[in-house]
Structures are given as structure tokens and as C-alpha cells.
Design brief:
- The protein is mostly beta strands and 197 residues long.
- It has a single domain, classed as YmcC-like fold.
- The chain is built from one helix and twelve strands.
- The protein has a twelve-stranded antiparallel beta barrel with strand order 1-2-3-4-5-6-7-8-9-10-11-12.
- The chain starts with a helix and ends in a 6-residue tail after the last strand.
């Protein structure tokens, strides 16, 4: 269960959408700002998961956003992500650096994009395969045309993580599947932080 809860932040980095006439999307698709907070329903539970940008830290000379996931005001997971020219990267998870930083989304991102990534976290090596698509999704917060990014592990855990992103909102839905266990999150509320105007 801890493995799945940590995965809840896997792509808790935010906002992709595209229509056929729109240009490819880049850094602007992830609206990260200090204080941004997303509140999610967890299917089958009364508790809510909140993910918030709580700090901006430098990691190896790179400006990274620190995200905290909480249930009942208890921190269950943390990660650091950075928006670079070519994509969104996870630099640190649970206080441990990722080597090399993990590419979560390419910039620009389009339907049909696919890539592979290998990394090491706490001496454990992992390989992931990513695929992007466009889908309409309805969640408690609203109905959105979204980009969905699927990530699938190449090891024996067979962990599949699918995340839907909406414009200027961020992650609106996430489905994590590992064996027979599934966790579904849907966005209930989005509170903006301290964006620069």
C-alpha cells in the first residue's frame, strides 16, 4: 500500500490539454506555483488527498517545486519536480535523489508521443514506458478535454499509472493499478497559490 501511496505523487505535476487546431503544448501546461493545492476524492474512501506546492528548492543547481501529499493533515509522500526546456522532470522522491532525473512529460507534448526512461532511486533501478493520448474526462471539478499520460513499469511489479491533465488546472484524474489493486483519484477542488501575474 505504501508503494501505491507514494505513486500518488508520481505525476502530481500539472496541466496538459490540446485540441487539433492548437499548437503543441510546452512548459505552460504545468501550472506550478507556490501554494497551489489540489484536493482529490479517493474512490471508495471518505478521506481526501491534498497535493500542494509547499516550497521551491534548488537541487544540483536546478529550481525544483516541492510537492506534499497529505491525507487527514498527515504527509504521506513528497517529491521535487522541475520544468526544463525539454520537459518536466522528477528530481527527488521521498527525500532521495533520482538518478538521472526522471522525464515525466516531454515539451512539447502531443497525442501519440511515447518515450522510455530508466533511473535509479535509493539503489533500486527501474524502467518505465510512457504513452500520450487525448480524452474527454468528467470529474467532480468539471468536464475537460485532456491529455492522458500512461506510464507502465518494465519490472515484475507491473505498475500502471494513468494521469489526465486539464488546461490551467493540472491533474484532474489518476488511476494506479498494481496487480489486483486499483486506486482512483478525481479532482474535487483546485486552489490557486501565488502565481506571478
Amino acid at each position: 500500500m505504501k508503494h501505491l501511496m507514494i505513486a500518488l505523487l508520481a505525476v502530481a505535476s500539472f496541466s496538459l490539454v490540446a485540441r487539433a487546431e492548437d499548437p503543441p503544448l510546452g512548459q505552460e501546461i504545468y501550472p506550478l506555483a507556490l501554494g497551489h493545492r489540489w484536493t482529490y476524492r479517493i474512490q471508495g474512501q471518505d478521506d481526501r488527498l491534498t497535493i500542494q506546492v509547499v516550497a521551491i528548492d534548488m537541487i544540483n543547481g536546478v529550481r525544483c517545486y516541492r510537492l506534499e501529499g497529505k491525507i487527514q493533515n498527515r504527509v504521506i509522500a513528497t517529491e521535487h519536480v522541475a520544468k526544463l526546456k525539454d520537459g518536466l522532470y522528477r528530481y527527488r522522491n521521498e527525500g532521495i535523489d533520482i538518478d538521472p532525473p526522471l522525464l515525466l512529460s516531454k515539451f512539447p507534448v502531443e497525442k501519440g508521443d511515447a518515450w522510455k526512461a530508466e533511473y535509479k532511486h535509493n539503489e533500486k533501478k527501474a524502467s518505465l514506458r510512457y504513452e500520450c493520448d487525448l480524452e474527454e474526462v468528467t470529474v467532480p471539478h468539471g468536464k475537460y478535454q485532456s491529455v492522458v499520460i500512461h506510464s507502465i513499469t518494465a519490472d515484475n511489479s507491473k505498475l500502471k499509472n494513468s494521469v489526465w491533465y486539464a488546461p490551467r488546472i493540472g491533474m484532474v484524474k489518476q488511476v494506479i493499478e498494481e496487480g489486483e489493486q486499483t486506486i482512483v483519484l478525481t479532482l474535487e477542488r483546485f486552489d490557486r497559490g501565488f502565481e506571478k501575474k
